[in-house]
Design goal:
The chain has two helices and eight strands; from the N terminus they run αβββββαβββ. The protein is of the alpha+beta class.
Length: 125
């Protein structure tokens, strides 16, 4: 067996150096703070709700409104005073029965008309 050539040693050393730098940056970064709740809108009534995310379970949209037992709750975000259903969820709203989707003003932008007031706290999961 032949001895390792100098350039081969350089490649191995650079590989270990790159591994060390990658591990340093991967392990010393600040952790990402995940959301612990979500703001939902009932697409039938426009009522806003605030629901905590369940621990160790996934969530499914549309969520079931506990008071009406209908699958009408979708996540929303407020941007410059207006409320919008996110782009990822608009296709689901488009597949919902038309008689259940009363407050969506523009499906393309996701804008919804909500009732005034603060979101009500509920537990839907």
């Amino acid at each position: 067996m032949n001895k390792a050539k100098p350039w081969q040693l350089v490649v191995v050393v650079l590989g270990f150096l790159a591994l060390g730098v990658s591990l340093y940056f991967a392990l010393t970064k600040e952790t990402v703070q995940l959301a612990d709740s979500v703001t939902l809108v009932d697409v039938e009534t426009g009522q806003l709700y605030k629901a905590p995310f369940p621990s160790r379970r996934s969530v499914v949209y549309p969520a079931i409104n506990p008071s009406t037992k209908a699958e009408t709750l979708m996540p929303v975000d407020q941007v410059e005073g207006k409320w919008f259903i996110g782009e990822l969820f608009r296709a689901q709203v488009a597949m919902m029965p038309k008689d259940k989707v009363k407050v969506v003003e523009n499906l393309k932008s996701g804008e919804v008309k909500v009732l005034p007031g603060e979101p009500k706290s509920i537990d839907v999961w």
